[in-house]
Design brief:
The chain contains 14 helices and 9 strands. The strands form 2 sheets. The protein has a 7-stranded mixed beta sheet, sandwiched between helices. A two-stranded antiparallel sheet has the order 8-9. The protein has a single domain, classed as Rossmann fold, CATH 3.40.50. The longest helix has 13 residues, at 137-149. The chain is α/β, with parallel strands linked by helices and 331 residues long. Bound molecules: guanosine-5'-triphosphate and magnesium ion.
Length: 331
């Protein structure tokens, strides 16, 4: 049976929400995640019509469609350096997810799953503290409705010193409101620390080897969360009435350069630009060098409740040592 779920991406401005979504299909296609390769997930963008009709196959009318879809546009914007999401609306993207290999027992239905993923500008749900950012009431209402109707929330936070960030107050209020909302459908919430590759910039080609160790992610998460006062509010969300299960993970949309294995940031470009060879056309340059890292995890957990070697529960992060990591899956 086809299952549908809605996932809302929430997080402060420039935390990397749109980039995480833009790199999702490539991460799944390259198997650059911490799930078993035997899972063989596949993810394909579909149209809103396919989602609404709950069609399990692509509709014939769309089969030979050539216009660029919204998701292709998002991917192109990301490849060119990223564009801040417009505050004038919220933006829905649709996907069909299948699991073609050995489905673990945690998955009770065989799928496929139709996903609606809602992206929005960070200022709407998590504005900078103390700033007055004009947002249309209609847009706030739309996002609030989408949040209350969604099965999962993916909270994207940049991997910086959290206590220095100017949006902690807004984030704490957001979590409180979500925990207290009576009519929500929320079953899962994933906190993902983005831009993970930046931690490894000095490690050269060893970077990828360290990043592939789930124990490193466990330590990074524990350290990042130590001063986070909103963490106790999240526990309330998990233990409260109709509690949602909470997971923590790390991800990098830029990822690590294939073959060279170093963080995928081009040292010859101003700012932080993805590495690519100018002489190659865009599609080839991406395929040849770009491997996103763990950007599938937040969405696969949100949709299926499936844990990977890089998703951690409160209990796992509270433990004194990381669990023995599952065999390294990233080739
Ligand atoms: N180094 C690094 N930079 C990243 C990564 N992901 C995104 N960025 C950069 O971070 C900036 C913000 O990324 P976005 O994806 O636009 O952030 P957002 O959360 O969608 O921001 P709003 O739409 O404005 O709320 C862009 O300049 C990206 O290029 C990453 O994995 N690593
Ligand atoms: Mg965005």
């Amino acid at each position: 049976m086809t299952e549908k779920s809605t996932i809302c991406l929430i997080g402060p401005k420039a935390s990397g929400k749109s980039s995480l979504l833009a790199s999702l299909t490539e991460c799944v296609a390259q198997g650059a995640f911490g799930y078993s390769p035997r899972l063989r997930p596949a993810l394909q963008p579909v149209t809103e019509g396919d989602f609404r009709a709950a069609a399990t196959e692509i509709r014939p009318a769309d089969f030979l469609a050539h216009e660029e879809g919204d998701y292709e546009r998002l991917k192109r914007d990301f490849a060119l350096g990223g564009v801040a999401t417009d505050t004038l609306d919220t933006y829905e993207y649709y996907f069909r997810l299948t699991v073609n290999g050995e489905a673990p027992p945690a998955i009770v239905t065989p799928g496929p799953w139709l996903l609606e993923i809602v992206d929005s500008a960070g200022e709407i749900a998590v504005p900078p503290d103390g700033a007055e950012i004009p947002i249309l009431n209609d847009v706030k209402t739309k996002l609030a409705r989408q949040l209350l109707a969604s099965e999962a929330v993916v909270l994207v936070l940049p991997l910086v010193r959290l206590e220095d960030s100017a949006w902690i107050g807004a984030l704490t209020r957001f979590i409180d409101r979500l925990a207290l909302a009576p009519d929500k459908k929320l079953r899962r919430l994933v906190v993902v620390f983005s831009q993970y590759e930046r931690l490894f910039v000095r490690l050269g080609p060893s970077a990828f080897t360290y990043a592939c160790d789930p124990a490193v992610a466990w330590h990074v998460l524990r350290k990042s969360l130590r001063a986070a006062q909103w963490l106790e509010r999240l526990r309330a969300l998990e233990t409260g009435d109709g509690g949602a299960s909470v997971r923590f993970t790390v991800a990098s949309s830029y990822g690590f350069t294939k073959r060279f294995q170093n963080p995928n940031i081009d040292p010859h470009q101003p700012g932080e630009r993805r590495f690519r060879r100018a002489s190659l056309e865009e599609a080839r340059a991406s395929n040849e060098y770009w491997r996103p890292f763990l950007t599938a995890e937040p969405f696969l957990y949100a949709a299926l409740g499936l844990d990977s070697a890089f998703t951690f529960s409160f209990a796992q992060l509270d433990a004194r040592a990381p669990e023995k990591p599952a065999a390294s899956i990233l080739a």
